[in-house]
């Protein structure tokens, strides 16, 4: 990816070719899941001059702004994913609690009288015979399977572990992306300030 | 171009301290902590609401006359005795209260660390940096 090369600055002639800033030059490596790491600029002057011809501040700011918007968009995606996980996890935990309750009832030997959701606003009374030890789990995609209580618990707990692991990964990625966003913002401010100071210095030397 | 707070500093207020890598790391840490702070605060407030609900339910239970109550687990409701239900409520309250306490602790740790970072960063950059809530 390279930014369009069509900016000119006051001290350069019109035919001088403008530097091509590629994604590699403003990032350094990536994290374990492929998100690029923003390059932290120790010294802006050296960095700008490392391009041939030296990159103008506008070009640099443009490149970093692009990167910044990409990170922002990715952060949005990750936030949504994270919110989905926050909803899913309690549901799995509720199912686990339910199955455990049924299991306990089975051991106690009783049956359970429940009211279940027949339709949106109607609940129907049902007596559940726990001695069967069977529970049906909804697996999604219109599939429902029969399990014993123990099998169900195993399945649900493994689902829970997987969901927690993915949630952790998403959270890590989110933190990482936010870091990159902040670093890019700071880079942009510094480049801008550097440019302001440089122009001021140029003005001072010209008028002296 | 990302929106800053638009503050243009007067010449005397300008700070020439260069941003070093460790400064950048501290700024990143501050941002990270801030994001986590909002999450923690959200969780605490929703847990507190839940605790209130359970509290109300327990009160209703005590006032209740019958000994068959409905306990809701997941999507379905189960009949339970008053004792079972009370037991269940108490266990839930304990569980959630623990989580609330843990989160409140995390919140104060975050605020502490943020205050430290603020001191360091303001010391270094003065007005050139803004670490306040919007």
Description:
The complex is a heterodimer of chains A (about 210) and B (about 130). Helices cover about 60% and strands about 15% of the residues of chain A. With about 210 residues, chain A is of the alpha+beta class. In chain A, the strands form 3 sheets. A two-stranded antiparallel ribbon of chain A has the order 1-2. A two-stranded antiparallel ribbon of chain A has the order 3-4. In chain A, helix 3 packs antiparallel against helix 4. Chain A starts with about 20 loop residues before the first helix and ends with a helix. In chain B, helix 1 packs antiparallel against helix 2. The model of chain B has no long low-confidence stretch (mean pLDDT about 85). Chain B has a two-stranded antiparallel ribbon. In chain B, about 5% of the residues are buried. In chain B, a hairpin with a 2-residue loop joins strand 1 (about 70-75) and strand 2 (about 75-80). The two termini of chain B are about 20 Å apart. The interface of A and B includes residues 115, 174, 179 and 188 of A.
Short structural summary:
Chain A has 208 residues and is an alpha+beta fold. In chain A, 58% of the residues lie in helices and 17% in strands.
Helix content of chain B: 55-70%
Mean pLDDT of chain B: 84
Q: Using only CA atoms, what is the Rg of chain A?
A: 30 Å
Mean pLDDT of chain A: 81
**Cross-sheet strand order for the largest sheet of chain A:** 1-2
Number of helices of chain B: 2
Quaternary: heterodimer
What's the end-to-end separation of chain B, in Å?
19 Å
- The strand order across the widest sheet of chain B is 1-2
Low-confidence stretches of chain B: none
Which structural category fits the helices and strands of chain A?
alpha+beta
Please report which band the strand proportion of chain B falls in: under 5%, 5-15%, 15-25%, 25-35%, 35-45% or over 45%: 5-15%
The shape of chain B is rod-shaped
Annotation, overall tally of beta strands of chain B: 2
The SSE order of chain A reads: HEEHHEEEEH
């Amino acid at each position: 990816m390279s930014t369009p090369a069509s900016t000119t600055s006051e001290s350069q002639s019109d035919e001088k070719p403008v530097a091509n800033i590629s994604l590699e030059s403003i990032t350094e490596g990536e994290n374990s899941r492929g998100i690029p790491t923003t390059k932290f600029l120790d010294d802006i002057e050296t960095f700008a001059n490392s391009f041939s011809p030296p990159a103008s501040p506008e070009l640099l700011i443009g490149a970093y702004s692009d990167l910044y918007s990409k990170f922002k968009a990715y952060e949005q995606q990750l936030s949504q994913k994270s919110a989905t996980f926050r909803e899913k996890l309690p549901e799995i935990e509720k199912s686990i609690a339910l199955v455990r309750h049924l299991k306990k009832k089975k051991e106690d030997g009783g049956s359970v009288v429940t009211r279940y959701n027949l339709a949106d606003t109607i609940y129907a009374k049902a007596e559940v015979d726990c001695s069967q030890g069977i529970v049906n789990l909804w697996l999604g995609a219109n599939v429902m399977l029969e399990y014993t209580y123990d099998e169900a618990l195993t399945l649900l707990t493994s689902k829970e572990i997987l969901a927690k692991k993915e949630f952790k990964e998403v959270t890590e990625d989110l933190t990482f992306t936010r870091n990159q966003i902040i670093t890019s913002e700071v880079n942009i401010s510094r480049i801008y300030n550097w440019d302001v100071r440089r122009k001021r210095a140029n003005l001072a030397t010209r008028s002296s | 171009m990302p929106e800053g707070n638009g503050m243009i500093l007067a010449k005397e207020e300008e700070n020439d301290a260069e941003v070093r890598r460790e400064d950048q790391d501290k700024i990143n840490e501050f941002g990270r902590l801030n994001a986590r702070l909002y999450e923690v605060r959200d969780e605490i407030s929703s847990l507190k609401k839940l605790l209130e609900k359970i509290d109300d339910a327990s009160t209703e239970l005590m006032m209740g006359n019958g000994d068959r109550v409905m306990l809701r687990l997941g999507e379905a409701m189960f009949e339970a005795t008053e004792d079972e239900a009370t037991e269940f409520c108490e266990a839930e309250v304990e569980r959630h209260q623990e989580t609330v306490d843990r989160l409140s602790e995390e919140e104060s740790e975050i605020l502490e660390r943020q205050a430290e970072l603020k001191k360091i960063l303001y010391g270094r950059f003065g007005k050139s940096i803004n670490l306040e809530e919007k």
